[in-house]
Design a protein that fits this description.
Blueprint: H1 2-12, H2 16-56, E1 59-62, H3 64-69, H4 79-88, E2 92-107, E3 110-119, H5 121-125, E4 134-137, E5 147-151, H6 152-157, E6 165-171, E7 177-188, H7 193-198, E8 199-203, H8 204-211, E9 219-224, H9 230-238, E10 245-248, H10 249-252, H11 254-292, H12 294-302, H13 307-343, E11 345-346, H14 351-356, E12 362-363, H15 370-395, H16 399-404
Parallel strand pairs: 3-8, 5-7
Antiparallel strand pairs: 1-9, 1-10, 2-3, 2-6, 2-9, 4-7, 5-8, 6-7, 11-12
Helix pairs in contact: 1-13, 2-11, 2-13, 2-15, 11-15, 13-15
Length: about 400
């Protein structure tokens, strides 16, 4: 076996140009596979973490009726008990209580449907990052009466600026339409322009006063140390809550969980396409090699080389070429990722399109270590698969006819 490998190693360098074609193909195949995986995973991971931290939460406690209809009357029944549970739970990184209402935002320039979030400013700043997204003003910290923070997209639509008046109308807990006049104290811009256009922030006490209940809370927005712990935390909380219900992010936003799974499937399909292209390339190059060496191969069979050894030699040549290209591809990928992890990949030229889908314009590649050996195994398997047809083709050569070829 060692002799076959030694002969195969010498054979691949008899024609360096042809060998380099396969080596470069393997290097580029490995690099492209891992780089696309890291880019897609990084973009997806950033979007999920951003959505969960700022919009959805890892776990949310709500009244069961609110999860079905999201009506303003479906306030929490066990607010104090839930607060106590969260204060001592080891998996909870932070939480904030919110009062919610769906209504209309109106100015002289027009009106638009919005979701109104009544928040405790200090609690909110300890959990989400919206206070860091302000483009103008402050995060409900001004001393004006009834301050409101609006998204930049909504401000443009309704022609709002700092200290502009904004009328918010919605249904109170008695089922009656009520309204309040607010002044814009801040304008924010997040990575999700759709969210910016449809969500406004007010002080929780101001919204509770308009609703008619100073204790009204609709949800407890909770973050864990890692969003993968969310399901366990939700189950733990539900065991201790009698009336309200805790839901983890995959229940709150099934489409987000589906998107995460779909991304994994997309990456597998993409790797498969690259592997298929690499297989066809190897088959093509090795068939050319056999055609050029048919006289040599016929002579080897004529002097007694068994077909099994001939098959092993050609297969070994292909695997050795991949064994040279594979570590080079892994090294190139590692160096590329190290570079972009420090600087990120700037997509600001398509910032508007990225914002409409909730993606950041600076992507940090993310690649789990398992992908290195998974892609390496796929490439080796692909190389082996690509060597089979040329090897079988060589076995069909007839020694006498092959030796007559020029």
């Amino acid at each position: 076996m060692f002799t076959i490998i030694k002969i195969a190693w010498k054979n691949i360098w008899r024609n360096p140009g042809r060998s380099l074609v396969i080596i470069v193909s393997v290097v580029l195949g490995v690099w492209a596979s891992l780089f696309i995986i890291s880019f897609s995973s990084g973009m997806n991971e950033q979007r999920i973490r951003d959505l969960l931290q700022n919009y959805t939460g890892h776990v949310v406690i709500q009244h069961p009726d609110y999860t079905r209809e999201a009506t303003v009357t479906s306030v929490l029944s066990e607010t104090q008990q839930a607060r106590a549970l969260l204060a001592r739970h080891p998996q909870v990184r932070g939480w904030t209580a919110r009062t919610l209402a769906a209504g209309m935002a109106q100015t002289s320039a027009g009106s638009y449907g919005v979701k109104i979030l009544g928040i405790d400013t200090l609690q909110e700043q300890g959990v989400t990052n919206f206070h860091r997204l302000l483009q103008e003003g402050d995060f409900l910290q001004s001393f004006v009466r009834n301050p409101v923070v609006v998204g930049e997209k909504l401000a443009t639509r309704l022609k709002l600026s700092l200290r502009s008046k904004l009328v918010l109308s919605f249904q109170n807990l008695e089922g009656e339409i009520t309204a309040g006049v607010f002044r814009v104290s801040g304008i924010y811009r997040s990575n999700n322009s759709v969210y910016d256009e449809g969500h406004v922030y007010v002080r929780q006490a101001d919204l509770q006063a308009l609703l008619g209940d100073s204790q009204a809370v609709h949800e407890l927005f909770i973050l864990t140390e890692d969003y993968e712990q969310a399901q366990g935390l939700a189950s733990s909380l539900n065991e201790q809550l009698q009336q309200d219900r805790a839901r983890h992010w995959a229940e709150i936003s099934p489409q987000l969980a589906y998107m995460n799974e779909a991304m994994q499937q997309f990456l597998l399909i993409f790797i498969g396409i690259i592997a298929l292209g690499l297989t066809l390339g190897i088959i093509n190059v090795m068939l050319m090699a056999i055609l050029e060496r048919s006289r040599e191969l016929g002579m080897l069979m004529a002097i007694g080389m068994s077909r099994r050894r001939l098959f092993g030699m050609i297969t070994a040549e292909t695997l050795l070429l991949s064994s040279v290209g594979l570590p080079l591809g892994l090294l190139l990928t590692y160096l590329t990722l190290q570079y972009f992890r420090q600087r990120g990949i700037d997509l600001s030229v398509v910032s508007e399109g990225m914002a409409s889908f909730g993606y950041e314009t600076r992507v940090i590649p993310h690649l789990e270590g398992a992908y290195y050996w998974q892609v390496a195994l796929i490439i080796l398997f692909t190389t082996l698969l690509g060597s089979l047809y040329p090897s079988l083709k060589a076995l069909k050569l007839k020694p006498v006819e092959a030796m007559r070829r020029l």
